Amino acid sequence: MTTEILANVGPALIRVAVLEEGKLVELFIERVGHESLVGNIYKGRVNNIVTGMQAAFVDIGIGQDVFLPMEDVYASESTLNAAGEPPQEEGSPLRPRIADVLTVGQEILVQIAKEAVGAKGPRATSQLTLPGRFLVFMPHSEHLGISRRIEDQAERDRLMEVLEGLRPPGTGLIIRTEAQGKTEAEFAEDLQFLQGLWETILQRESRCSVLSLLYKESDLLQQAARDLFGEGVSQFLIDSRSECERLLEACDFLSPELKGRIRPYSDEVSLFTRYNLEAEIDRTLGRKVWLKSGGHLSIEQTEALCTIDVNSGRFTSGADLEETVYKTNLEACDQIARQVRIRNLAGIIIVDLIDMIVEEHKQEVMSRFKKAFARDRVKTNILELTQLGLVQMTRQRNRATLANRLKDECPYCGGDGRVLRPEVVAARLYREILDRSERAKGALLLVSASPDVARLLLETREASLKELEARQGKRIFVRAEEDMHRERYRIEEAPG
């Protein structure tokens, strides 16, 4: 499969697109001056411990405490023994309470694991990880692991043998996907760099005061070169010559054998326009995604849940309804996986497939669905099809969705997506006019509303308002304000 990486460097945004067979499958965006905190390591201070949540809140100096759950707290063996809580059963690990491991005011090293989502602050871990080209070094763990995307069992056995001989005592290592086929010498060089980096972090910790940044994750372009740029990538195009030269220098360590595939782009037509990505990104921000067959997906996102509804739409091909449904669902599987990756949808995802009757069709669709997610680098867990035709899955969340990167909450509807109808607001306004007119001391009530509400109020309540004026002995003047929110209005008193 041909893979390309395209980087657009602008004054406000840096965008990195990943194309497979010429199709956009992943998009990473970083706002200049608003870089992601994920991967950064801080010397923080425990501000609060919530025993009921088995979690702590840590101040790292960014103006918002980060959330640190007990499952992500590094606790040494001595700390666990001091906690004094027996194992749940023989041979199981100790499970201390967070109050036995951390105390308010304690200094602690934490790494940001997930970005803030909505009102929730960033999530942190004290199980630190340092990613390299082929390895992930874990100074506080003795875990050994291999990327799930390396499927060849013989290669996995070889890599595990290399890991066991390479691991420094008391630490852990994970083999990354790009390590497949690499030599022990290449791993040793990677590990040497990561150990040196860890020593530098420890030296900074001893010198720096609390609430200090000890390690800053690489910028978006360097992350792309480290995490995305592998043997299967045919080219890495960057539309900034200076950034291209900087990345070439970084690749002296990251991947010197791939430097020849990093190229500057300088055509008059912008890079993303040349590859038809601007229109694709605009379509990706919409709720509806059309399938080639005429069917479509409807994608709805909330803070904790995403739903994807598959509709047959205009697709009526096939000998019968079951065949139409089957073909639509098959096509939808590939598009769903692509949209999930581009939009970086995460958390709980519910896919509502069109109902199928034939059991063989259900199995083939689920097989296609899982295969479509096989190239997703983010950890996913896909459950089997339910009796209601739903596919339930989870996808690990670590960074913001594409919509959150590119969109702000609508100031008009407050993110609800809907506003009250004019007649509802007009009825509310009329009731408030009745109430205020009885209590008002001034001789004039000045009512301001949006144009559609003001017009509707005068059309439907003109006689009632005149009657009210006569009964209360007050004048009521209604005016339209072009810039006023439909659901807002204002009633002011004046001497008259």
Q: State the helicity in percent bands.
A: 25-40%
Using the 3D structure, state the CATH architecture of the largest domain: Beta Barrel
Largest sheet: 6 strands, antiparallel
On the 0-100 scale, what is the average pLDDT? 89
CATH topology of the largest domain: OB fold (Dihydrolipoamide Acetyltransferase, E2P)
Set down the secondary structure blueprint.
Blueprint: E1 3-9, E2 13-20, E3 23-31, E4 41-50, E5 55-59, E6 66-69, H1 77-83, H2 98-101, E7 107-114, E8 123-125, E9 130-131, E10 135-138, E11 144-146, H3 153-166, E12 172-175, H4 184-207, E13 212-215, H5 220-227, E14 233-238, H6 241-254, E15 262-264, H7 271-274, H8 277-284, E16 288-290, E17 296-301, E18 305-311, H9 321-343, E19 347-352, H10 359-372, E20 380-382, E21 390-395, H11 402-406, H12 422-439, E22 444-449, H13 451-472, E23 475-480, E24 489-494
Parallel strand pairs: 1-14, 11-12, 14-15, 18-19, 22-23
Antiparallel strand pairs: 1-2, 2-3, 4-5, 4-7, 4-13, 5-6, 7-8, 9-10, 10-12, 16-17, 17-18, 19-21, 20-21, 22-24
